[in-house]
Amino acid sequence: MNFTLKPTALMMAAGLSLTLLSGCSALNQFMGTEESVDYKSTVTGDPLSIPPDLTQANRDARFQAPGGNTGALSYSQFAQAQNAQPAIGSATSNVLPEQSGIQVMRDGDLRWLVIDQPAEKVYPHILEFWNNQGFTIHSDDPRVGVMLTDWAENRAKIPDSWIRTLLSSVVDQVFDSGERERFRTRLERVNGKTEIYISHQHMVETPTTDGAAFKWVHGKEDPGLNAVMLARLMVFLGTDLEHAQAQVAQAETHDTPALIQVQDDASQRQLVLNEGFDRAWRRVGVGIDSAGFSVEDRDRSSGEYYIRYLDADSGEKIEQPNIIGRLFRARNTAEAQRLRVRVMAQGGNASIVQVLDENGQVLNTPTAGRIINVLSTNMPH
Predict the structure, then answer these.
(1) Rounded Cα–Cα distance for residues 218 and 292 (Å)
(2) Which among 267, 236, 295, 272 has a CA at the least distance from the CA of 345?
């Protein structure tokens, strides 16, 4: 367990560090792993408030609930109407009744939830969940069912002791875990149910080669931590703690491991997967999440994810605006391209993944090759 002292508090920490190192308790060891989690967002914000347009996601017909549009309601009227309804997971609610409405699925290292409710019912509760876990929401788009938290520090990775408890306000200013994480949640509609995928990005503060400073570098994604957050989400939605732990830990994996083959030459830049469309679509979606691509839309019927991608290796100049440019909101000379990632079935037991331009034409450019390589690296096996 490593941690760093904030430079501004180095002198104040000198007298406390030895005592704090004396103990490191296991805080909330979920699922019997080393995944202690106690997040504190590095971005401050007001308590999460879900306006009616987000709850109903009424900008897109795919996310509209039956029974009319809430656009004419004031927020207070909408809140009163929501409060009059049974809470999710309650005895009188039709949402997730008696734990049977949530199922944990697994494919290799990948786990996800299947909830027997439409996305517009589930979406606002997931927003509340992340706020409850100590995160602020960086962005969310109910049209595509994706939300992203801001970076947060896992304070459970800082050594714990009675001194820390006694001087908690001082310790929080002095010590830093040297790690940051943020989570992306994606909802999919499948056969009238909602699938929920959670993936995280990890940053670690690392000394430079000369040891004179620190820099933030990307760390490895931990499937175990994603599983922990899935279990916590199940509990938040009303599942019993032990039942949630058992479901996530015991979810049966698929018998056949995924084989991902990269075909990247001048004439063909694509991925070949030894699995049917459903598994390939799921795996590509998680790869897009883990890689941090910006998703504008997706269409499962055509097998396409609509993304934006800024190719930093294309040679196109990416300028940081100077102080004058920032005052006048100058933009970078290079802008993200609108592209598509298409998943196509090849018979019953194989699929290919290609990169298309904005007009739907297959790309065999170096940029397409780089996207293919990034996907293959980030897709779960």
Answers:
(1) 12
(2) 272
Residue-wise pLDDT for 130-172, tens only, equals 999 989 999 999 989 999 999 988 776 655 555 555 555 554 5
The CA distance from 62 to 47, in Å, is 28
Q: Which helix (H) or strand (E) holds 227?
A: helix 223-236
Taking the C-alpha atoms of residue 186 and residue 282, their distance in angstroms, rounded to an integer, is 11
What's the CA angle centered on 152, arms 147 and 156, to 5 degrees? 130
DSSP secondary structure string, 261-281? EEEESSS-EEEEESS-HHHHH
26 HSE (CA, 13 A, CB side): 7
pLDDT tens-digit profile of 64-101? 333 344 344 443 443 444 445 444 444 444 433 344 68
Angle at 232 between CA 292 and CA 202, to 5 degrees: 30
Which tokens belong to 115?
A: 């909830």
Q: 19: which 2 tokens?
A: 């005592």
Q: Where are the beta strands (DSSP E) in 208-322?
A: 214-219, 260-264, 269-273, 294-299, 304-309
Q: What distance in Å separates the CA atoms of residue 133 and residue 181, rounded to the nearest whole number?
A: 12
Distance CA 16, CA 163 (A): 8
Mean pLDDT of all residues belonging to the chain: 74
- Complete domains list, the chain, with CATH: 1-67+84-255 (3.30.530.50), 256-381 (3.30.310.170)
Residues 22, 194: Cα–Cα separation, whole Å: 46
CB 279 within 8 A of CB 303: no
Tell me which range, 25-34, 44-53, 68-77, 196-205, is most confidently predicted by mean pLDDT.
196-205
